[in-house]
Amino acid sequence: MEFNKLKLAIGVAMASFLAGCGSDSETVIPPEPDTSLKAFAPDGKLQATVRRTTYGVPHIQADNLESLAFGSGYVQAQDNLCILADGFVKANSQRSQFFGPHTFDFVAGVPAAEDNANIISDFGYKALKIRELAEAKLPEMTENSRAMISGFVQGYNQYLADVESGSETGVEPFCAGQAWVQPITEVDYLTYVFSITVLPGAANFLDLIFFANPGDGDEYLPRPAQSQQQVAAFSNKLDKGLQTAMANISTPEPNHRDLGSNGWGLGSDKTENGKGMVLGNPHFPHTGNLRFWQSHTTIPGHINMMGGSLVGMPGLVNIGFNENLGWTHTFSTAEHFVVYQLELTSGDRMQYLFDGAPKPIKSETVTVNVNVGGGQIVPFEKDIFFTDKGPILEAPPALAPFGWDDGQAFMIQDVNMANMDPLDHWLAMNRASNLEEFQQTFVDYDGLIFNNTMYADKEGNAFYIDDSAVPGLSEAAVVLLRTSPELRALREQAGFTVLAGNSSLFAFDGATPHELIPQLLRSDFVQNSNDSFWSTNLNEPLEYFSPMYGEERGQLSMRTRMALKMMDDAAGSDGKFSFDELSAMLTNNRAYLPELVLTDLLAQCDAQGSEPVVVADGLSKDLSAACAALSSWNGKQNNDSVGGALIREFAHLFNEETMLTVPFDPAQAATTPNTLATDGSALKALAQATLNLEKAGFDVDAPLGTVQFVERSLPNGLPSGQKLPWPGTHHVEGGFNVFSTRLSGDDTLMPQHTYPGITDVVSDKELASGLTAEGYPIRYGSSWMFVVSFTDDGPKANGILTYSQTNNILRPEFADQTALYSSGTGLRPLLYTEDEITSGLVSTLELSKQK
């Protein structure tokens, strides 16, 4: 990528012109504590009752936050011990200590590759200083947050103690008895929370932070902390591997629109009973630290919340509902960090200029313990470099834009670094009983990190807000981001915002104030499928916000267009959704691309007949069989959908820009671009897709369920090859209920099969669809899926956790919801009322502990 150096003077030159545009930062007064809700357990006695109903859902009741988190920590460890333990190891920079420097293949019993992923991760998190920040910030957390942290740690540790004593059996076999599964401290836990807050920002740059060094050689390489002859060979091998890894790194893509979520909040004008409804459909990894877990948490008189949360949340629900309201989240298009280009003082790579004054680039030596084999743990050290605002990053010469030389260096500042609000923010949302209280949580806190929020309530309100933490740039800087061709081109080139670091014009010290963030209140609907805030409701587009929140008037993804189309045509003749109609939205598996072009494509097929379509020199294909398969497609991507895999491969070769003739029009954003080109390009893509599918060993009329699958394990914790057919669409097809073979955001240690990918017949590159000779092994996509309707008798809800409640092969809930989803029978009722819980009761566990 050719990358012109940012003209550092732009900030200074424009400062006087825009001086009047600046605004003072808002002073936020923390809310008064609610003394009626007990934070800590009285007299240090933790008590919680856990009733599990069908599918292993725990209903956790306690009288205070610490005890609620205690019960949650205990049963989460029952269900997902290995995932939790690895999350703590990873955040605390201990993966190399326990697993060696490389990703480990637990199926083969050897490193998966000499990728140095663990040592880069460990040093990267050390460079972010999240452990140091946790130690410093823990005493400053609110009483409620400290109580929840304490309770979760007590519950997790109590489970480990009960396993050791033998009173708790059936521990997850993959990590049972392993040295890396250890009791944790409150600092360990807060370090883990801080590792989550940087996921959409600085954590994407760990390899560039690892590489950063002011020299031009290999000074970035770690070195044994003490001279030890016996590790010399290991150290040399490590150096060579790291040099290879650094040569192959690339700049990250922090926001993947194709790997996000769907969320709807329906208001009184869009529902049959005139009350609100919520549809939640987060797309997340099916394994690893970002796995969802369902629970129902109750503190009588204060909390009665049901939903799904990321594993590790201390008794809080991230996405769900209570008696009065519900909400869901999607990944925002907003940016949560700024990369700054620093202007170095002449001849000194360790000093930069800020408003004309020199400021230091500091260095610090950090140490990571590395398992070098044979039971030997050796400390390795390296230097990290940082400013007062964040770590220095650098790319190797092959990735020219972000070099550190005599004139420039680059630094990343993440607005979510040590964000202390997430637990308090979600707690306030869990406790809210009406729209005003819910909206106030976004005034009081800024803890949602990277989320859009779609909300509805029993009064029929539908509300949207993108309160993901976004750098609070001055008004002058926002104007420049919006109007400067240089800054816009630079942002487009890099994929994220790069600003001059030599002027306070572009500096920030906190998140964007509440009054400047996108939000919308409607009585019909709000929705998001990972396009920007602008398209929340095209009847009232949101405009004139900071470009750091995302694009305005931009072309929508086919998935968003599918969502808007279903919002119009799937609610029956009255145009208003019933509970059953909304429930069907999550598993109907429609896809926008074939609905848009299939009729025209089949007409072109008829005209082509049996005449082979030329794909490349010496490569052609008769499309008769492929076209017959497409004509038999049932309009859904279900297990029995003939031609479903062919549609998938065609979609990955489809180019909207060249294969649709009516261009995008912001005034018709929900329906443009459209109209299939008649130049033969679509038939060529279909022929190429056909050849790719046949190369993988599948017939063009193969039902999707014979190609797309998930895999389940045997009790030893290793993959068995047992496959379940898997209905569902892909983002590129314009699907709504989306799945993928990708492992975005998932670097789990959990064992799983991987299969060699099929290469394209033309480019010889691995297919973007992830197709293998076994088919599509699903790793990512719809996870915690639910709908809730508010009625005169309280909330009514359906849902499913597609990969089931637990990763523990020994628990009965290991694959029950997975099998249910595979069968295509839809969602299951969510048991919320006392009568429902009693009727579905499977077990009761009374937990107590004296601190």
TrEMBL record:
Keywords: Hydrolase, Signal, Zymogen
Domain of life where this protein originates: Bacteria
InterPro entries assigned to the protein according to its UniProt record, in alphabetical order: Ntn_hydrolases_N, Penicillin_amidase_A-knob, Penicillin_amidase_dom1, Penicillin_amidase_N_B-knob, S45
SUPFAM superfamilies for the chain: N-terminal nucleophile aminohydrolases (Ntn hydrolases) (SSF56235)
PROSITE patterns reported for this sequence: PROKAR_LIPOPROTEIN
UniProt cross-references to CDD domains, sorted A to Z: Ntn_CA (cd01936)
Ranges in a coiled coil: none
Signal sequence segment: none
Family membership noted in the UniProt record: Belongs to the peptidase S45 family.
Name of the protein in question: Acylase
Organism of origin: Shewanella submarina
Lineage: Bacteria, Pseudomonadati, Pseudomonadota, Gammaproteobacteria, Alteromonadales
